[in-house]
Amino acid sequence: MAVVSQTSESSMSSDDSSTSAPDGEAQPEVVLTVRGVPACPGAVRPELDVELITALQELEKFFYDMRKDVGVPNGVWDETTAVLRYLAYLSVLIDIWLSDIALSALHSIDLAILMKLRVLVEYVVRAQYVDSHTDYALYMMTVGEASSVVRKLEESGSDEDIVGRAKAELAERRRRFSSVANLKQRTLLEMMREFGTGDDYVWLYGAPSALMHGDAEGIRQLFETSDSGQEKITIKLEPAHVNAMMVDVGGNVLMFCDVFIRRFRPTDTDIIGRKAILERKFKTLLIRHPLGRDVKVLEDIGVEIGGPLFPDLVVTLKNAEFRLVANGSKWEGISGWIPPNFPFVAQFNVETEKDSYLGLATLFADGAARIFDAHRYRRVDDRMLSQTIRNGMWATEA
Fold first, then answer.
1. What is the pTM (predicted TM-score) of this model?
2. First to last CA, the chain
């Protein structure tokens, strides 16, 4: 994380005309000057939610601790050992993708996030399905796995003796695990319909798959048309879309953690407690980044995590008070959904008879607000003058 440097009020010269208040007006009382921005070596992307990136880093550490030192069966003998081995296998794959996905976001490779999220969705659905259908887990890890090997060897034109040994292994597994030998391979669509809808399959898995496989329909997601009618390739999405996808990354990983912990660490109170904290954090972030989400679902989550009970806020700006009125789960004039935890940063837009104020403020539960980046727009003699708060002082801009 990169942090914008702080300039204290005591270090500023009081007779510096470039920072003095215009028209003899008093300067703002309090201003926040330090702000975290998501970054890594070679990339800074301030439009990403810094709390979201931090939460993903916490989740990555938690995921490592959750997997550490668990006992994994060294073979498959029954339904339980089949489920455990398969979940342990998936946990390694998820760990790899989770550590990589934030880098794609920081470097603005947004279509990669879309495709990687598709992979995570598949892993989570498969984990949920085998947890609920342990007989299928046994089939998949024994007869199904051996059948897949035989099919690939035959398709590759392998030597007959190699194919013969693989077929003998398949026959032995059919005999040994006869109780599941006649089960059939399930498609991901069949699995997802048990935990979601066909619509989920199309948009969470099918559409990103078109890009991953190079299908022609994927072009629709890769090209955008400018106002002049020119088409250009883009791999960058709108910040609201990226933040929402990153919240979904965390949510999907936590759904996998729920299955993994229930199977491997059902009595580990420390791990269970840490997961609960992360779940609440990502639900709060989900409300903050509502793009494409059902409003009723957001309202239900708001009630679940404490309810969107927001006071009216009073912003003190240049000795004038502007009230931001609570309206359900939002404040009038503040963009986006506001999570029920404090303090946090929000955008405000205040209109007065003469001026317009647009900026960012840190808001507190007691209704106080600390402005750290605000603009005042005033029309004077048919000219629009813009003034900006920087480090606690007004600075005039033409």
1. 0.68
2. 33
Could you tell me whether strands 344-351 and 355-363 are parallel, antiparallel, or unpaired per DSSP bridges?
A: antiparallel
Say if residue 217 is in the same domain as residue 260: yes
CA separation, residue 202 to residues 70, 175, 240, 361 (Å): 35, 38, 21, 39
Domain of 101? Answer: 50-288
Q: What is the distance between the alpha carbons of residues 211 and 205, in angstroms, rounded to a whole number?
A: 11
The tens digit of pLDDT for each residue in 309-354 reads: 344 445 554 444 555 555 444 455 554 444 445 555 555 555 555 6
The candidate with the shortest Cα–Cα distance to 55, out of 289, 239, 369, 263, is 289
Q: Are residues 157 and 78 in the same domain?
A: yes
Question: At 6, is the secondary structure helix, strand, or coil?
Answer: coil
Shared domain for 263 and 208, answered yes or no, is yes
- DSSP codes of every residue in 21-71: PGGGPPPPS-B----EE-EETTEE-TTS-HHHHHHHHHHHHHHHHHHTT--
395 is written with which tokens?
Answer: 């600075």
Instruction: Tell me the two tokens of residue 14.
Output: 């009081």
Q: Which segments of 134-268 does DSSP mark as H helices, in order?
A: 134-139, 145-156, 160-176, 188-195, 198-200, 207-212, 219-222, 239-264
